[in-house]
Amino acid sequence: SISGDLMIRNIQLNHGGKYVCVIDTDVESLSTSAILVVKGPPGPPDKVAVEEITDSTAQLSWTPGRDNGSPITGYIIQARTPFTVGWQAVDTVPEVVNGNMLTATVVGLNAWVEYEFRVVARNIVGLGEPSPASAKTRTEDASM
């Protein structure tokens, strides 16, 4: 019995597939094959939209990105305003946005502030790249 190794450096998702090893001699030809499955963090969600906005909440929707070989287990919603430094995770209802959901309500927003939102998917491999930002949307004025 002969054994060997296959080494793929800097593996990428597109390296997955069927690999065949063939040994040809003057006497005989032998081959064996293996299926290589490459898994990675999810691709970025898309089409993040603000469906409805109040003075303190925003109802968001999005479309999923590629799962890259491992099911999406959840989403993180992030927001930024002219007053924040970079993107910040925000509170949502439900509190945990699982991988089957494509909507969530962001809570605890400030009145009369312009927000942008984005969504990050995760799976067992890790966090994916964030979605493109939603259109800028201003929360309503606080009720008196």
Automatic annotation (TrEMBL):
Question: Where is the protein situated, by its record's location annotation?
Answer: Cell membrane
Name the SMART domains for this protein: FN3
What topology does the record note for this protein and the membrane?
A: Lipid-anchor; GPI-anchor
Q: Which residues form the Fibronectin type-III domain?
A: 44-142
Gene3D superfamilies (alphabetical) = Immunoglobulins
Q: Which InterPro entries does this entry report, sorted A to Z?
A: FN3_dom (IPR003961), FN3_sf (IPR036116), Ig-like_dom_sf (IPR036179), Ig-like_fold (IPR013783)
Tell me if Signal is a UniProt keyword of this record.
yes
Swiss-Prot/TrEMBL keywords: Cell adhesion, Cell membrane, Disulfide bond, Glycoprotein, GPI-anchor, Immunoglobulin domain, Lipoprotein, Membrane, Signal
SUPFAM superfamilies on file: Fibronectin type III, Immunoglobulin
| Major site of localization recorded for this protein | membrane
- Keyword Nucleus listed? The answer is no
Q: What is the gene called? A: CNTN4_3
Cited PANTHER family:
CONTACTIN 3B-RELATED, PROTEIN SIDEKICK
What name is this protein filed under? Contactin-4
